[in-house]
Specification:
Order of helices and strands: HHHEEEEEEHEEHHHEEHHEEH
Helix content: 40-55%
Bound molecules: adenosine-3',5'-cyclic-monophosphate
Shape: globular
Oligomer: single chain
Structural class: alpha+beta
Number of strands: 12
Strand order of the largest sheet: 1-8-3-6
Radius of gyration: 20 Å
Length: 241
């Protein structure tokens, strides 16, 4: 017997339960609507460190991350990078150009091998028009990002390097932290250069500050993985400006 909720063959690689848990787009959709949306999308894969799109490019599609992580960044003319955000499974990007028809507002690059669902404006907008709860979820997500960007601008304007770096590390602890006998392991590998791009300073400055914290027993690193051993001390650093 035909089952309306049965996933189409090409959608079988998609774990709808996991997608629902992480994704604002899918959380409020019925199974039938979720499979319809997946049916409207195409799947794309990308290797690590590939540009999905560059700032200034024309764009009319939205990406949903199924697997992997991407960074959203701006590049100066001299090639300096400022990381605005890191997005993982279930999160969306490309919604800005899709909604306002302008060019891409930032460059999006894969940090790991990634798999995406890609939705074109011409199919996604008619779908969205009939699902107000999904539209509201997307608006809430965009507000959340604007808040995060306000915090970033405020931190860059008002805080010194150690407070900015401490706040970023505490943020990473909150998002990716796993308790281990040694301390809280941050489950996202970031180079010192990338940490510098998140806080707006050079790799050398990050290195100097991290060394001081390692010497003070506040953090440690193990094969490129950061471990926070004294989060109270890091909180104090985050509050000092
Ligand atoms: P779009 O402008 O189409 O392409 C770049 C994408 O990066 C953008 O859509 C958003 O999805 C994302 N993006 C841009 N600026 C930010 C930001 N400040 N925080 C998080 N994501 C962003």
């Amino acid at each position: 017997m035909a089952n309306e909720l049965h996933p189409p063959v090409e959608a079988k690689l998609i774990d709808l339960a996991a997608l629902r848990q992480n994704s604002v787009l899918f959380a409020s959709l019925s199974d039938a609507d979720a499979w319809e949306l997946i049916g409207l999308a195409r799947q794309e894969t990308a290797l690590a460190r590939q540009a999905v799109f560059q700032v200034g490019q024309a764009g009319d599609s939205l990406h949903i991350v199924l697997e992997g992580r991407v960074k959203v960044s701006l590049l100066s003319e001299e090639g300096k990078e400022a990381i605005l955000s890191i997005l993982g499974a279930g999160e969306v990007f490309g919604e800005m150009s899709l909604f306002d028809g302008e060019s891409r507002s930032a460059t999006v690059t894969t940090m790991e091998p990634c798999r995406f669902l890609v939705l074109r404006r011409q199919v996604f907008l008619p779908f969205l028009e009939k699902r107000v709860p999904v539209m509201l979820e997307l608006i809430a997500e965009m507000s959340k990002r604007l808040r995060a960007t306000n915090t970033l601008v405020g931190n860059l304007s008002f805080l010194n390097l150690s407070a900015r770096l401490a706040r970023i590390l505490l943020n990473l602890v909150q998002q990716y932290g796993k308790v281990s006998p040694k301390g809280i392991v941050i489950g996202l590998k970031l180079s010192q250069e990338e940490l510098g791009h998140l806080v707006g300073v050079s790799r050398e400055s990050v290195n100097r500050q991290m060394r001081a914290w390692i010497d003070a027993g506040i953090i440690d690193h193990d094969h490129g993985t950061l471990i926070v051993m004294n989060s109270d001390a890091l909180f104090r650093e985050a509050l000092a400006s």
